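Reminder to self: tokens first, then the designed residues, so the page reads top to bottom the way the pipeline ran.
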């Protein structure tokens, strides 16, 4: 059953005249008649009362029964055309640690959300150790994490590095370019975030956990800022987070005289991604490359 035949039938019923139907569809009367004959032959019934001496065409009982079917068929065909115009649906499931998702990647997410054709974007915020199993089970397509953890089916590539600085609540207008001596920091005032095992080892060298105890925030970046605000306490955080806090006001940050190694962000992905995600991944990496080139000019930038 062809949509042109259905269209001719519905238009003739509406206009009650083959000539007017032909004008409305921009075809000849012969074409309309031919389409009606095709439809009736395929269905094996007469749909319309027409012939010499009949001024207005009317439906036969079979035609009346066929009308709702014809309407549904035409509507379904329109939906099918719309479906084909939209093309293949794209989807991408991305995971990262909270600091990156909250403070670094929003401009990248905006690019992905504005892409045409649209990408159904699913975002996951997890600790690094949880991202690897999600990738291995293909529950996410790509992720950026703090550590290179050996998994047989996961590719891990260094992406960017960010220095760690001291962030403090303050009413002093400071541009965050000073340096503070580690020994001048009171460990009793620290809000401790264990960014990576390597960072924890460095931290224990300066402020051994068996001697000093400080509140630990395993939940990471946003809660750290809330707790630090107006508290007089300090915390060691990534530079981008410190710059963001400084832009809000009420915070200042400094570099350390003996600083920990920069945090390295790693791109992690499955060695054999799902075929349906190949195009989405290609788009993601294109935007990520552009984002990387511009990141040093952004207020929340890393320094490589």
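Designed residues (304 positions):
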């Amino acid at each position: 059953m062809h949509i042109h035949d259905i269209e001719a039938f519905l238009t003739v019923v509406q206009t009650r005249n083959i000539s007017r139907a032909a004008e409305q569809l921009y075809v000849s009367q012969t074409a309309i008649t031919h389409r009606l004959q095709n439809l009736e032959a395929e269905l094996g019934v007469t749909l319309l009362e027409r012939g010499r001496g009949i001024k207005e065409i009317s439906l036969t009982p079979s035609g009346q029964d066929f009308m709702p079917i014809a309407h549904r068929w035409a509507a379904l065909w329109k939906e099918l055309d719309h479906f084909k115009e939209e093309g293949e649906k794209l989807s991408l499931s991305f995971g990262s640690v909270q600091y990156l998702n909250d403070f670094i990647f929003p401009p990248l997410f905006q690019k992905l959300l504005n892409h045409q054709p649209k990408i159904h974007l699913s975002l996951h915020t997890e600790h690094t150790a949880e991202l690897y199993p999600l990738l291995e089970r293909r529950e996410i397509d790509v992720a950026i994490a703090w550590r290179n953890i050996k998994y047989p089916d996961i590719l891990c590539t260094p992406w960017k590095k960010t220095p760690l600085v001291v962030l403090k609540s303050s009413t002093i207008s400071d541009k965050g370019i000073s340096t503070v001596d580690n020994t001048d920091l009171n460990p009793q005032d620290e809000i401790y975030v264990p960014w990576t095992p390597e960072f924890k080892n460095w931290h224990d060298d300066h402020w051994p956990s068996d001697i000093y105890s400080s509140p630990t925030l395993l939940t990471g970046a946003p809660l750290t800022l809330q707790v630090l605000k107006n508290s007089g306490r300090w915390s060691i955080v990534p530079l981008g987070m410190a710059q963001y806090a400084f832009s809000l006001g009420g915070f200042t940050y400094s570099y350390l005289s003996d600083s920990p190694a920069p945090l390295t962000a790693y791109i992690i992905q499955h060695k054999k991604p799902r075929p349906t995600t190949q195009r989405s991944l290609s788009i993601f990496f294109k935007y990520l490359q552009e984002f990387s080139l511009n990141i040093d000019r952004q207020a929340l930038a890393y320094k490589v």
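The longest strand covers residues 154-162.
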